[in-house]
Amino acid sequence: MHGYCGYRFILVLFLVVSAAVAEEEGDSEEFAPVIESPAFQAEVSGGFNYDLLRNPLNVSFEQPRGYLALNMPFRFVAPDNMMSQMSEGVSDFLAEDGEPFEPKASASQHTNTSFLVDVPMFGGVASFASTQNMYLRYENILGAPEMTIPVESENMDLFLRGATNVPLTLTMGWESMSFGYAFRAGEKLRFACNLHRHTFHFDLRAKVGVDLLGNLTVKVPEGDEESNPLGAQRAQTVNYSSDQMYGNAEGTYSVAVWSPTVAVKYSRISLVSRFGVDTKAEGKLNAAYSLPIFLTRDFQTEDEDFFLDNQERIRNNETHSFHYATDEDLGWKLPSGHTLAFDIVKEKLSLSYTKLFGDIEMNLPNIVETIVSDQSGEGQRDTVDFDVGVTVDHVLLISGGFNHAFFNLGIFGMDFRFGDEENLLEKIEALPNFGGGTMLPILTFGTTMGSKMRLLLEVDLLPLSAVKTGIVYHF
């Protein structure tokens, strides 16, 4: 159950990363443009499946069983107050001279499947499972439909109006094939071991578009017209069109790795140990785009003196090219978790506690950043890192099953980080904190209907809503 909570909430991470980055940059005292009514719309389609995390001891030693299930799409729209609190930093920056920044975000389940077969043999039970553990598709459009850059000075006036547009699509998937065997040593003692082959893929696609148009006016004292760099003209059109200001980003990574799960149960006490993963996904990342010389990669301008010192370059529509590339592999980690459970009512009601060691992490180091003037060829190089993490811990769960009905009720701690920014969930004031994380509830329930062939209906209310259906067949 601990992995279910962590991987399901990964989708929220991508809704707050932009806010975390902008909050750090929003403290700059540099001259900034006026952005009227900035737009941010995010759509997340995610399939999160915790069938991989079933107890490998929950098998029948007498009867073969087959199981096929899928998640049904269910839309979630983040409340305005939640998004406002999570994006407080970027909102303050973007709304300084414009309307309040009100990001919109929604999420839905992506249909995914689980297939499982348990077959008694050789005194135990052999199992095979194929599970789509997670599929995440994140799409957003971050931009400013009305960006105004006014610069007024004693010698020059510059006025630009236009828009920025940054559509992004990210897909991430995780699938597993599991091979297991469970056996009994007497009436009270059971053992089980599973081997999981995980396949992980990560794909990123993004575009950058900037369109700015305006005038640069040179103020020349009377009688000194010869000093006007524009000659007889007093104003010149400045045009940074989208045909010139554009770019894209592409990245793809994939890996396959094995991990074990072992379990033991004596009488009413059981221990399940799921061992984590620390691997590297091979792939590549490449991004290239062009921006006006007065816009940095985070869409803030330099100080006002820059415009005064670079009038000629602006009149000539000079640009900078940004290029990001890395040959490094994408680091991917899953934590190890150990679950201690006690049957309050044998095979009816149990209480469990899960302790995790490590975080869910993705890390891409040493991304080489190159910024070059498209006209002079002068440039600079630097390196940046991409590092995100999800912390899940202290999972306390009550699970019950009576006749054909079942439920799970509990609570767990969780938080996110992006680079040096930690505890991003703490921005949501309504959620309690404990043990270095924000406490979130768990509530799922369902039933099976039928005899030999049973119809499964499951509802996950918290932490995010989902509906699962499927068929359980007893051979």
Summarize the SSE layout with pairings.
Elements: H1 2-8, H2 10-25, E1 34-36, E2 39-48, E3 65-72, E4 75-77, H3 80-86, H4 88-94, E5 104-109, E6 113-121, E7 124-152, E8 156-184, E9 189-218, E10 235-240, E11 246-266, E12 269-274, E13 277-292, H5 304-309, H6 311-315, E14 319-326, E15 330-334, E16 336-345, E17 349-357, E18 360-373, E19 379-402, E20 405-418, E21 421-422, E22 433-434, E23 437-450, E24 453-462, E25 466-474
Parallel strand pairs: 2-5
Antiparallel strand pairs: 1-7, 2-7, 3-6, 3-25, 4-5, 6-7, 7-8, 8-9, 9-10, 9-11, 11-12, 11-13, 12-16, 13-14, 13-15, 14-18, 15-18, 16-17, 17-19, 18-19, 19-20, 20-21, 20-23, 22-23, 23-24, 24-25
Helix pairs in contact: 2-4
Distance between the termini: 28 Å
Annotation, overall tally of beta strands: 25
Uncertain residue ranges? 1-40, 85-101, 298-302
**Number of helices, where a helix is a run of at least 4 consecutive DSSP H or I residues:** 6
Helicity level: 10-25%
Q: Over the alpha carbons, how many angstroms does the gyration radius reach?
A: 28 Å
Q: What's the number of domains?
A: 1
Report the biggest beta sheet as strand number plus sense, adding barrel if it closes. 25 strands, mixed
